[in-house]
Amino acid sequence: MTFKIVCSVHDNQVTITLPPDFSDRKEVTVIVEDAVDDRAKKFELMKQAAQDPLFLDDIREIREDFDLIDEEIG
After folding, report:
1. What is the pLDDT of residues 19-70, one digit of tens each?
2. Arithmetic mean of pLDDT, 2-26
3. How far apart are the C-alpha atoms of 39 and 47, rounded to whole Å?
4. Which long-range contacts does 15-24 make (Cβ < 8 Å, 24+ apart)?
5. What is the DSSP-derived secondary structure letter of residue 19?
6. Which phi and psi angles does 59 have, rounded to 5°?
């Protein structure tokens, strides 16, 4: 069984309360990754890109190319 939870870190420690399904387990594997911080950084970069004129121009060009293809097919 897999159980995934995002936990807060306090004094460089994490406390996890396992769900009842784990009550008979003597051992579990814990994997620690800082993906939450990476995800927040990626969202921030996406917000910045949404305001970037060069990025928006690229998106507009791609959309125009696909519109032309759609006209040829349709």
Report:
1. 998 889 899 998 888 767 778 888 889 999 999 999 999 999 999 999 988 8
2. 90
3. 12
4. none
5. P
6. -65, -40
